[in-house]
Amino acid sequence: DQQVKQNSPSLSVQEGRISILNCDYTNSMFDYFLWYKKYPAEGPTFLISISSIKDKNEDGRFTVFLNKSAKHLSLHIVPSQPGDSAVYFCAASGAGNTGKLIFGQGTTLQVKP
Amino acid sequence: SQTIHQWPATLVQPVGSPLSLECTVEGTSNPNLYWYRQAAGRGLQLLFYSVGIGQISSEVPQNLSASRPQDRQFILSSKKLLLSDSGFYLCAWSVLVGFTNEQYFGPGTRLTVT
C-alpha cells in the first residue's frame, strides 16, 4: 500500500517559469511533510518541510503548500533554474520517536534553458 | 556541524558473497539512524532503522541485516548476496526536536551484484 504517492514521474519546464510538483498521501495520521532533492549517484538533500498545523511554508524560491482535507501537498519553485533539474521526493512522517519517513516514488524535474 | 560518512562509494560483488556497508555520523549524539535502498528507477525504500545502540527495527523481510554497535555507527550486512540486492544504498540520520523530523543522508553506496 503506497501511503505517499507522486503520480507524475517527470516534469519539464522552461527556465524562469514555475515548477509545481505534486504529492498525495492517504494516512491522516501524518503530521509532518518534507521535500528532498536528489541528483544521480548522490544522497537526497533536504529542501523544505511543513507541519500539519500550517498550510504554507516558504524558503526563498521554494514554497510548500499543504491541503489537509485533500491530503495533498505541492512544491512550487519560482523561478525555475537549470540547476533545479533533479529528482524530487516528497516524504511524510507521523507521531512517535522513530522519525520514520515514508517516501513517494519521486518526480524527475527537467528545467530547460 | 554534523556530517555523515558512508563507504565504500561503489562495490561490485558476486552472488553468494558477504556484504558489509558502514555508516558513521559525526557531530551529534544519540541520533536515529536509517538504511534505505533505491532500486533502479524506483523510490526510496526504508530497510532498517535504529533509535539507539543495539536497537534495530526491520521494515521489510529480506536477505539483509543491520547492526548498531556504537551510538554513531550503523552497519548493513548480508551473509550471501542475491542479484536482487543490487541498488543504491543510503544511510541517514535524524534527531527529533519537537515537530521537526528532517533526515540527512549520506552520499550512498552503489552495489552491483553480478
From the N-terminal CA to the C-terminal CA of chain A, the straight-line distance is 38 Å
Q: SSE string of chain B, helix = H, strand = E? A: EEEEEEEEEEE
What gap, in angstroms, lies between the N and C termini of chain B?
A: 38 Å
Radius of gyration of chain B: 14 Å
Overall helicity of chain A:
under 10%
Describe this structure in words.
- The complex is a heterodimer of chains A (113) and B (114).
- Chain A has 113 residues and is mostly beta strands.
- Chain A contains no helices and 11 strands.
- In chain A, the strands form 2 sheets. In chain A, strands 2, 4, 5, 9, 10 and 11 form a 6-stranded mixed sheet that branches.
- The termini of chain A are far apart.
- By secondary structure, chain B is an all-beta fold.
- Chain A binds chain B through residues 31-32, 34, 36, 41-46, 49, 51, 53, 89, 93, 97-106, and chain B through 6, 32, 34, 42-46, 49, 51, 57, 88, 90, 92, 94, 96, 99-108, 110.
What is shown here, in short?
By secondary structure, chain A is mainly β. Chain A is 0% helix and 53% strand. In chain B, the strands form two sheets. In chain B, strands 2, 4, 5, 6, 9, 10 and 11 form a seven-stranded mixed beta sheet that branches. In chain B, strands 1-3-8-7 form a four-stranded antiparallel beta sheet, with no helix packed on it.
Walk me through the topology.
The complex is a heterodimer of chains A (113) and B (114).
Chain A: E1 4-5, E2 10-14, E3 19-25, E4 32-38, E5 45-51, E6 56-59, E7 62-67, E8 72-77, E9 86-93, E10 102-103, E11 107-112
Parallel strand pairs in A: 2-11
Antiparallel strand pairs in A: 1-3, 3-8, 4-5, 4-9, 6-7, 7-8, 9-10, 9-11
Chain B: E1 3-7, E2 10-13, E3 19-26, E4 32-38, E5 44-52, E6 55-58, E7 65-70, E8 73-78, E9 87-94, E10 104-105, E11 109-113
Parallel strand pairs in B: 2-11
Antiparallel strand pairs in B: 1-3, 3-8, 4-5, 4-9, 5-6, 7-8, 9-10, 9-11
Structural key phrases:
heterodimer, A: 113 residues, mainly beta, six-stranded mixed beta sheet, five-stranded antiparallel beta sheet, globular, B: 114 residues, seven-stranded mixed beta sheet, four-stranded antiparallel beta sheet, 0% helix
